[in-house]
Input
Amino acid sequence: QHRETNLRYLALESMTNLASSEFSRDALKRHLETVINALKTERDVSVRQRAVDLLYAMCDRSNAMDIVSELLGYLEAADYSIREEIVLKVAILSEKFATDFSWYVDVILNLIRIAGDYVSDDVWYRVIHIVVNREEVQGYAAKTVFEALQAAACHENMVRVGGYILGEFGNLIAGDERSAPLVQFQLLHSKYHLCSAPTRALLLTTYVKFINLFPEIKPDIHEVFNQDNNIRSSDAELQQRSVEYLHLSTFAPLDVLATILEEMPPFPEKEGFLLEKLKTQSKDEAMRIVGGGQRRARSGSMAGSETSSRGVTPSASREPLSNGLQASSPVPLQPPTTINSGSGQSGILLDLFDSQSPETPLSNLSNESGGILTQPQTTQPTTVVNDDSFNRFVCRNSGVLYEDEVLQIGVKSEYKHNLGRIVLYYGNKSSFGFVNFKTGVYYEDSRLQVHLDPLDVASIEGGAQVMQMCNIECLQADFTISPILTVSYCLATPNDHRPQSVKLPVMVSKFFQPFEMGREDFFSRWKQLADPSQEFQKIFPATQPMEGEATSTRLSGFGMSVLSGVDPNPDNYVLAGIIHSTTAQVGCLLRLEPNHAASMYRLTIRSSRPGVPEILVNLIVPQF
Output
């Protein structure tokens, strides 16, 4: 509980080392509540990560359920840099100390529900492995995953697990009319159009398994196989499966069909490959710390001169699946495939937020994951077509970025410290397919780094939608030029080429983290930022209704903390926040003074870095 962050960090690290000794483990358990409190309340991500490491090290059968429950609860608010490591540790602990494998199934499904983006294929392969090998949990797993699939928003990993388990063991719950064969099929197929091609391929295999389990729904499944978007799909795998499954189930004798589609036999036991993955990640982390020369910086005053960014102990590297797992993969329904996030699925983010050291920009890293580490394009794109809609995203993170008569581009973004991710949705509104569909990113500001995942499709069918992931890293907190997304495709004919250039809603304010402070601290630090280069002020007329609640909502969307009861004038608004970049943290204070009688505002922003206040003022003025 010491006030000094570095001492708390060292205390947790020392306790983690002690936890490896059986003589000190019981003594450490007495401090379980303190460690959990550190996990929930610490502001420094590196201290929180040490708390996660300590909880993992001190876990045994007596406290496993409590620790796993706390980690699951923390996962929803955890930093992106440590989410995958927490997921992996929860999966290992729940399997290692499970006395009832129905609890293990519940934990893994909760992991997918809470943090599906960070549940690697290794984890959901493992739950399939265990369910197939343990007959006593198969009925429970089928019932539980069936209920999970009924959620309105369902992660694609949940669809994969559900497709496999119901395809193998759906007959165990088919006696209940609420989970009758046709209900199971309709529930799975309601997710089909939202999934990527590899997941659709898995579902097609589930459907043909249903024909063996439930012959009465064979006509409904044949109808799906015969649909143009399957039997004439531009994806060769989907087309081949649809044709072969249709002919197999039509012409094969029943005994032959039953033999081919019989329940999968138990898999050979292969204990500990998740643990090996965790050890590999821990080793990579140690190498990055030693090689990168990272050091944890002491927390400094937000005001005054610019403070260097706090060193963060990197989490496990977020690499996609190694090919070594594929040989023993427990999912014969579909050969394991490394999935790119651009394939239309809602949330396969395997490579998101690689925890690279601050000294290593993304552009200098080798591309082991198969993604595109985007470099600035040398050719200036066509005229940007979404300047008006771009301004709407200053105080919001999701919505329609661009739309015309045939193409709609939607975005959903999320930011934490100096990292951000943008999920791009490309929708084909027409009845014709997009062919030769290509995307790219142009950016000319070296203070920003952009990582655009590749699309693994070259066409979008009419009425369909695909998804692509774009990762952002703020290198310096004074960048002014947003990256431009370039989209090109042909509609109906190869000669109907349609290029578009759309400005991505990436601005420096997106990297704000709110900062709470009282009246005395606010005005004390306000006075410290007295240099003219640290302030920018603008008086401007109101273009929106000057309603208190609406104004407060727009200011909250800017990313700073709205401080109530701080300004002596209750009509004024004061805010505080810290812009996080790879190289520095920049403290910012904002004061907005409305003049209702004249319908005018006076906006003043002060910052520890010269130039930043003017950038922020120019962003926020159009919102009022």
About this structure: The radius of gyration is 27 Å. DSSP finds 21 helices and 16 strands in the chain.
